[in-house]
Request: fold
Amino acid sequence: MTSEFKRQFEHNLEADIRSETGGDLEKVLCLRLNAAEEKGDMERDVKVLYEAGQGKIGTDEGVFISLLTARSPYVQISRFAFC
Reply:
């Protein structure tokens, strides 16, 4: 995706994302852009997400961001749909 963006627009996609966004949105977009498509361990992911949010004041957004951007959205959806 990044090479096609550079070819068509003569810009670096990640640099454009960083210059046009900020905060958690920037983190999500850049991590998703650079993430490898991995399946992960769904049971472990669910436990980690639960512990990052349950019974706390606020949540650990970093955990949510890293897990949700490192996994293929198609793999996540199909795996959760069949639970």
Summary: The chain has a mean pLDDT of 80.
